[in-house]
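Q: Is it fine to ask for two folds in a single conversation?
A: Yes, each is treated on its own. Send the first.
Q: Here.
A: Result:
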Amino acid sequence: MTSHPVHRSILALDIESSTAPLRTNPIKKELRDLLYGFLNKAMEYAGVGEERHDRLDDRGDGILLPIRPVDDVPKTFLLSRLVPELTRQLTDYNLGLSSVERMRRELRVRAAIHAGDILCDETGCIGEAVDVACRMLDSPKLKAVLRSVPAPMVLAVSSEIYWGIVRHEYGGIDASDYHPHYSVVVCGRRQQVFVHVPSPLVLAS
């Protein structure tokens, strides 16, 4: 692992209720495979090709994706393209489930987006920015938000993302859709977290 930091946008995802009693190991794998497939399609839609990101870090029931800073894939694309497209796919999948299968196979996801300097090698990435993204993602308050809404995904963004991107409403982002909801403390530093419930992206036929 190099001692020189690299700046990355960090997208973290986690499947809701992955340890529920009705979710056998084969079902867990099925849902994880679906999430990977949906994420890959959303990344493609947002222009995040293989050359635009580092190795995906598999976390069993979740994924950590470090995205390289390039001018043709700005952070706005993560919020205005990738997240809504991922939400659309999750919505379509869940609507196709029967009421019986919904208990076992409904796919609902928490997401977090942060950015910062981290260390990366062929095994993955580490650093305070990764810790912040994971702490945001695993917050009981974000889990409670997802339980309280019918949408298949909720998104948490750090104060860096909110004040640098969302507040300026780049790319048609509506800042009024993001609300300060909780904070996390990493390495003695408190980070305010803003929460958004994404709407599915409606693609033209």
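Q: Second one now.
A: Result:
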Amino acid sequence: MAQKADQPLSTPTEEPAWKQRAVERSTQAAKRRAEQRVERFLDAAQAIMAEKGTTDFTVQEVVDRSKQSLRSFYQHFDGKHELLLALFEDAMSKSAEQLRTAAAEQSSPLDRLKIAVQTLFENSCPDPAAKRPLFTDFALRLLVSHPNEMRVANAPLLALLTDLMTDLEEAGLLRPGFKPRRVAALTMQTVMFNAQSSGQAGSHPITADEIWEFCAKGFTLS
């Protein structure tokens, strides 16, 4: 008897549930092991930078400190630059969260933005005693040689400032016609650039209060 044209030749058989669970469990375990290896490399690099106060170290030093293999390192990173980039992105993400927490303690949208801008300025100022080579060394090189990577690293910070600018707009305090995200980007660049160059202002370095007054007069109605 001939089979009807609209009748499927066969019905696909789903994998047994036990097999799906086994594969998923295996994948999750492999992911956890990879994450642990990556964290050990990052922790090793952080420890070396804290000791040296510079990003001038070798991949082999990181491998030796982490007690893992060179082969394992290159399974997770293309090289030293990608390792530093991972550390910098993580640091920027944590910094954005710290600023968000500090801003949340303020009651008004203008005060929330003010504390975020001033704290960002203070955190971005060069401080030899603080030994923050990711910000004083790597970040500057990244800005010049890899602007797209810097943009990605700054994304959490830009998102925070955009949220705060949006709150300002909703409160009727942002200048008409200004777009929160664009103003946030301009403010972030102004604050971070001036912070990095504040040490070159001679005997009268720029202060956090001054940078806030300068920025606020540009985007607020007052």
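Q: Anything structural to flag on that second result?
A: Two points. The chain has a mean pLDDT of 87. The radius of gyration is 25 Å.
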